[in-house]
């Protein structure tokens, strides 16, 4: 009963604590929401200022470029041809990021030169400029005007009047006079589009409105650019609940405002003035409230996550207090169980290891005994059967010599018997060499492999290429015999199963070992299917080769695929032959 009361007290305290944390989370959420809104508005205002400054800096750079032209020497002496040449040279070297055309006009406003004649027709300088330019107080000043050709042609024309002295000899006095104008056509739409990409990537949209209320640029609604914002048709009324925020932007020039659209999220907008000479624009940066709401919602959910974590902690703590003893007892029992299982696995592993070692020992002993038996049989064939056959041949030759010429049938029988004995003697010699190649002791491993290669190439109508160095001094006699046997077994398999036309043998010496490679272009086989077969069904050839390599401390690898031939590769560590 006492334990139950303590348990209920823990639960009650946990519930009170969770309720307190939940209330604090709600309060903190409201505070965070207010802070984020304030920061968001300030951030929008900074973006609007930054964008306005970017435009202002661009125009300021072009103003400074134009203000340098009146100081050209050709301009000072009223040399229009020289000025034209200077402009051509200058236009080739200057950075023209957004400049479309550079045009030169005479004092009557006629175009003397343009870097792009086709575009110059669309970018005519307004007549008001030439009236303004002829006033001497405007010398060295720039004049900015806008040019709109719907649906999407928006250019700024930045112009400067040119004053110069008449060439010597034309007049008695050399007074400065108005001689023409120079104008840049700036593709402001391209600049604004590129700059707005950064803002739209963070969920902000840019507008630019002139003092007459005309929408000059909009990354949000490019289809209504060049329309007056006071021109509000049914299309606009489908989305906008009220246009009071537009009126306020035009009236106040700078500030922040929020507004709503039908079927869309609430929006914030920051707006700042942009003035440059005769230009008077307003730059507006807006963003949807849902991006802001996402931030505050994320923070709120983080608080709820914290609350959930604390709740889970209390629940788990209660469970731990109640079931601690049971869990501990169960863990100890499981630990003892796993210890017994691991001990049994270790014993089974050791037993399997001992069994594998015994099998490998028996296998190596079997191969050793087999090699000795082959040597014994080879010697018996060579010394016993070979000697007997030699005696038979000698007697047949003596019998033939003692026959008379009229005994032609007997002579023919003797000759046939001698030929048969020669054939049997050759078969015995070949069998003896196969069982124990004497040349391995007499000529060495390299020569024996070459002989074996030539014998199989000739007997099986194959083309065999061999690339090897002399490796006789790198192995003991026992190792040489095992390596030779591997090559014998490989050629036996090629002859019986592969039906290969070409065989390649490569023997390469490395600092610590020698690599042997035997590759054919025969039928190949499904390696996985052969390996998965029962030992009694798949034969001992491959197994014997692999076991011989293992006995020499080497590594055996086999690759084969049906229709793509077979490659055997094995590496044997060097064991220098004892010459003493």
Task: Give your account of this protein's structure.
By secondary structure, the protein is an alpha+beta fold. The protein has a domain at 443-580: Heat Shock Protein 90 (2-Layer Sandwich), CATH 3.30.565.10. It is 57% helix and 20% strand. The protein has a five-stranded antiparallel sheet. A five-stranded antiparallel sheet has the order 7-6-10-9-8, with helices on both faces. Strands 11-12-13-15-14 form a five-stranded mixed sheet, covered by helices on one side. α13 links the parallel β11 and β12 (502-509). α13 (477-498) runs antiparallel to α16. The radius of gyration is 51 Å and the shape is elongated. It starts with a helix and ends in a 7-residue tail after the last strand. The model has no long low-confidence stretch (mean pLDDT 77).
Helix- and strand-based class? alpha+beta
Largest sheet: 5 strands, antiparallel
How are the strands of the largest sheet arranged?
2-1-5-4-3
Give the number of helices: 16
CATH superfamily descriptor of the domain at 443-580: Histidine kinase-like ATPase, C-terminal domain
**Backbone shape:** elongated
The averaged pLDDT comes out at 77
């Amino acid at each position: 009963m006492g334990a139950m009361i303590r348990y209920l007290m823990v639960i009650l305290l946990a519930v009170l604590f969770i309720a307190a944390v939940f209330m604090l989370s709600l309060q903190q959420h409201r505070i965070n929401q207010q802070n984020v809104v304030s920061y968001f508005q300030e951030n929008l205002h900074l973006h609007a200022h930054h964008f306005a400054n970017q435009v202002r800096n661009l125009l300021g750079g072009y103003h400074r470029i134009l203000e340098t032209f009146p100081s050209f020497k050709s301009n000072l002496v009223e040399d229009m041809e020289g000025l034209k040449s200077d402009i051509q040279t200058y236009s080739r070297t200057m950075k023209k990021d957004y400049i479309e055309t550079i045009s030169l006009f005479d004092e009557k406003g006629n175009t003397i030169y343009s870097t792009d004649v086709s575009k110059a027709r669309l970018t005519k300088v307004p007549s008001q400029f030439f009236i303004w330019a002829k006033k001497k107080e405007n010398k060295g000043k720039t004049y900015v005007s806008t040019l709109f050709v719907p649906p999407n042609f928006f250019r700024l024309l930045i112009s400067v009047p040119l004053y110069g002295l008449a060439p010597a000899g034309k007049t008695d006095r050399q007074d400065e006079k108005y001689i023409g104008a120079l104008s840049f056509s700036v593709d402001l739409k391209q600049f604004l589009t590129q700059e707005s990409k950064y803002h739209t990537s963070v969920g902000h949209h840019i507008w630019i409105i002139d003092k007459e209320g005309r929408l000059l640029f909009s990354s949000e609604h490019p289809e209504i650019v060049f329309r007056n914002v006071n021109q509000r048709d049914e299309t606009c009324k489908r989305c906008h609940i009220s246009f009071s925020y537009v009126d306020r932007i035009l009236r106040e020039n700078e500030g922040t405002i929020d507004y709503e659209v039908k079927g869309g999220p609430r929006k914030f907008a920051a707006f700042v003035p942009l003035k440059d000479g005769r230009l008077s624009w307003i730059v507006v940066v807006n963003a949807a409230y849902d991006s802001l709401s996402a931030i505050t919602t994320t923070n709120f959910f983080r608080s709820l996550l914290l609350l959930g974590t604390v709740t889970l902690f209390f629940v788990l703590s209660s469970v731990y207090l109640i079931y601690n003893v049971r869990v501990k007892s169960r863990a100890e029992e499981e630990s003892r169980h796993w210890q017994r299982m691991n001990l049994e696995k270790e014993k089974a592993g050791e037993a399997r290891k001992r069994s594998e070692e015994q099998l490998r020992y028996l296998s190596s002993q079997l191969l050793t005994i087999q090699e000795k038996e082959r040597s014994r049989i080879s010697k018996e064939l060579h010394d016993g059967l070979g000697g007997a056959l030699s005696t038979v041949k000698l007697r047949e030759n003596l019998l033939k010599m003692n026959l008379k010429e009229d005994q032609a049938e007997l002579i023919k029988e003797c000759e046939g018997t001698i030929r048969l004995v020669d054939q049997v003697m050759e078969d015995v010699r070949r069998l003896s060499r196969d069982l124990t190649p004497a040349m391995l002791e007499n000529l060495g491993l390299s020569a024996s492999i070459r002989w074996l290669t030539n014998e199989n190439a000739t007997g099986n109508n194959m083309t065999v290429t061999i690339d090897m160095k002399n490796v006789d001094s790198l192995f003991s006699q026992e190792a040489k015999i095992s390596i030779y046997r591997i090559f014998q077994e490989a050629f036996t398999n090629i002859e019986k199963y592969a039906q290969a036309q070409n065989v390649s043998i490569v023997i390469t010496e490395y600092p610590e070992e020698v690599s042997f490679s035997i590759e054919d272009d025969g039928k190949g086989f499904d390696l996985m299917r052969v390996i998965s077969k029962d030992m009694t069904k798949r034969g001992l050839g491959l197994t014997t080769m692999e076991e011989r390599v293992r006995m020499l401390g080497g590594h055996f690898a086999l690759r084969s695929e049906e229709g793509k031939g077979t490659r055997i590769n094995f590496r044997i560590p060097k064991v220098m032959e004892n010459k003493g």
